[in-house]
Write a structure and sequence with these properties.
- There is one protein chain.
- By secondary structure, the chain is an alpha/beta fold.
- The chain has eleven helices and 21 strands.
- It has a nine-stranded mixed β-sheet with strand order 6-5-7-8-4-9-10-11-12, with helices on both faces.
- Strand 9 and strand 10 form a beta hairpin.
- The model has no long low-confidence stretch (mean pLDDT 87).
- The structure holds thymidine-5'-diphosphate and magnesium ion (MG).
- The site of thymidine-5'-diphosphate (TYD) has 15 residues, from helix 2 and helix 3.
Length: 458
Amino acid sequence: MAKAAKSSFVCQSCGAISARWSGKCVSCGDWNTIVEEVTSAPPPGSGLTRASKGRTLTLETLAGAPEEAPRFLTGMPELDRVTGGGIVPGSVLLISGEPGIGKSTLLLQLAAALGRAGRRAIYFSGEEAAAQVRLRAARLGLADAPVALAAETSLTNILATLGEEKRADLVVIDSIQTLWSDALEAAPGSVSQVRAATQSLVRYAKQAGCALLLVGHVTKDGQIAGPKAVEHVVDTVLSFEGDRGHTYRILRATKNRFGATDEIGVFEMAGSGLKEVANPSELFLGERDAKAPGTSVFAGMEGTRPILVEIQALVAPSGLGVPRRAVVGWEQSRLAMLIAVLEARCGVSFAHHDVYLNVAGGLRIVEPAADLAAAAALLASLGNRALDPKQIHFGEISLSGAVRAAPHMGLRLKEAAKLGFTEATIPASGDPNADGAKLKLRRVAHLKELAEALGPCD
Ligand code: TYD
Ligand code: MG
């Protein structure tokens, strides 16, 4: 007798499987995310039949000649930087980002660059018709690039096409959520379809040794749609971020099996596609109104590269019982902490003021060393004064108000000197190296010193 197809109930948000439907997922707590899905047999060739007996493996040691992963450069230096020095053949990269941020544009440019360098690049578009992709290629001036293109959403057809390929160096799937396999009954975009498509494609990429780039959608809160399972099976997860009101786009690695995850790539969305930005500091400081009150310049680090960025604060009298605190490009909780430290340790009160903090240019700062620059901007705005436009700040502030040393002091100061800054307010501890000699250094050990230097604020 044929076995009846079994169904299970899968949360589309976290991938948890339960035996029956419920309105709320017990695993992640989300509402209305559970969908019935028919589970199918394991894919043929995976060796997962019940009767098969295991084969004995030869166990090895960790020692041995290290095999440096061979990489190929993409021809886009910013992308090479984020991936850790180029793409590893046989690796799988997932690129996620909000709709319209430029994922398809980036990957088309990448495929074209590789095609022109003599590599075989294949682009499968599941979202746009071939004519639309061609139109974009023409707009980007890439129409003559040797890229193989197909508009397809059937996983079976894609795998069959790839099976015929003798030498593919790069395969782009735009996007993984549009693929569907007829072996499964679930709808395209559902957890089981996405998972099955990813697994089959990953298996192909590892066997054929070609680099696979998957586009992944994100949900409204920035998570990659579909289960975490996709992020686990791929080698690298890149997120493409940026504010749609700005032209800057930042590519950030959140997972990388072949390199560090702290590097960022900076691009600018222009009329003719994405342009690489080799010196982001100049870009982020480009439109600065240096005489505006309440702005400071933070000398930050993104990976191994120093980036200078403007921090703007607005502290205005509040008409509300509970004053507003809003922040763009920084953590809300970090701002709350900073205000609390300023109030408790420096005697400055924000109790009757709304506080707005903005990181210029659409950059998102995660470094704690931005504390001192944010504090300077807040104090300057409260006192309605402009800081010296040739001054930079960095340093982490602890809950006691002490200013802690930040890593890579020398690199930050060197970049500041290069861009014409003359003064730096930095932590009292830590070694600024020889690069510190180029600027006038103001070393602060406690936040109070900064508050006092910026004058009486009440
Ligand atoms: P797209 O790559 O389609 O985004 P995604 O695949 O992430 O959804 O990019 C679409 C946006 O980029 C669109 O809003 C227009 C803009 N754009 C430009 O500004 N210049 C260009 O040359 C191209 C191709 C797109
Ligand atoms: Mg797209």
